[in-house]
Amino acid sequence: MKILTKATAVIGFLALGACTATPGEDYGFDSKKLTSLTASIWVDPNGCEHWVVDDGAEGYLVARRDRGGNPVCRGNSSTPDLPVLSLASTIWTDPRGCQHWAIDDGAEGFLSERLARDGTPVCPGADKPEPPKTFTLAADALFDTDKSNLRPEAITELNDFGSKMNQLGKKRVFIVGHTDSRASDAYNQRLSERRAASVAAYLEKNYGIVSQTEGRGENEPVGDNGTRDGRQANRRVEITLLD
pLDDT tier at 115 (50, 70, 90 boundaries)? Predict the structure, then answer.
């Protein structure tokens, strides 16, 4: 086994308690996506033990310690290359999408950043696109014409949105209501405000989401109010994530 002993290969081993941090969505120990390797213990000439992990492309060697942080040394060893124990090592992916070796024998554990041959972090999930910051809901799917009470069909859509918010750990949003240009400016302004407030009230009651609301009436069209499709596009509720 080829072991990398340069500083970049050993710096960063931490107590496995670091693994208790809440990982990002769809991250964590995932044997379906990531390969498990065997972690062995190597005994040095002084009888002190070291964790060893090698996947053929990279390797790690770090002192094995007890719960008190003291090196595990059982006396001089005449067979320094003897692997005295083998454990399964897994790869943990942090919220940034970067991978870490994780080893635990029940009494102690280690977490170490996984590095490529050139010493750079292995972060295959770092390029995942950021979740959208603003969601647009069609008002026609939420409300009847000239109404601000939620339609029964709206509940499914808002439940889906609320569930996604919980998965993302988001609890604060900014909700803006919009209308088409039919009716007066004043009427459309009031209608857009009431619609934004209805969505906010449902999300707060059922998902604990705190909202700021605003109505902008017909002032920010995204379509041509002279056409049916344009008016339908303008009737909408926009929800922007605040944190």
Answer: confident
Nearest to 195 by CA among 230, 132, 145, 242: 145
Phi, psi of 6 (to 5 degrees): -65, 160
Mind spelling out the 3-state secondary structure of the chain?
CCCCCCHHHHCCCEEHHHHHCCCCCCCCCCCCCCCCEEEEEEECCCCEEEEEEECCCCEEEEECECCCCCECECCCCCCCCCEEEEEEEEEEECCCCCEEEEEECCCCEEEEECECCCCCECCCCCCCCCCCCEEEEEHHHHECCCCCCECHHHHHHHHHHHHHHHHHCCCEEEEEEECCCCCCHHHHHHHHHHHHHHHHHHHHHHHCCEEEEEECCCCCCCCCCCCHHHHHHHCEEEEEECC
* 240 contacts: CB under 8 Å, gap ≥ 6: 133, 134, 135, 173, 174, 175, 176
Question: Would you put residue 167 in left (φ > 0), alpha (ψ -120 to 50) or beta?
Answer: alpha
The pLDDT of 124-139, averaged and rounded, is 77
Rounded Cα gap, residues 149 and 121, in angstroms: 51
User: Is the distance from CB of 12 to CB of 112 less than 8 angstroms?
Assistant: yes
Please say whether the beta carbons of 175 and 238 come within 8 A: yes
Q: Which of 122-131, 167-176, 223-232 has the lowest mean pLDDT?
A: 122-131
Which residues fall within 8 angstroms of residue 182, CB to CB, at 6 or more apart?
A: 188, 225, 231
Burial class (CB in 10 A: 0-12, 13-18, 19+), 188: buried
